[in-house]
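Predict structure. Chain length: 114.
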Amino acid sequence: MANKEQGKNKDKDKKKKKKSSKKKKSKVKDTVAPKLGYIPYVLNKGRGEKVWWNASDNVGIASYSFKFNGRTITQKGSSFNIPVKTSPGMYFLTISAFDKAGNKTSKTSIIKVR
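Prediction complete.
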């Protein structure tokens, strides 16, 4: 029985050596900011209408945030509806896209709410 146990231990040692000899993947730091697609400088929208955008990144988009009428919201989705109770007028909309490494890009547009 001792020989069997010694054989098992040798097999375990071989497996450990194989695992430890595998090269670990080195993580390359992502320094490329996401890219936001075209966003018009001025948008004419009605209350309750949807505003959407798109973005791309070499690693992937982690989240978006947008600031509208003094309120900032962070979310996974790439759109929002103008609140129905928004008074007609001109508002700034700033959209930011974040990748998984925390890189950020932003664009600002004016929304004319009718």
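Summary: Residues 90 and 112 are 5 Å apart (CA to CA).
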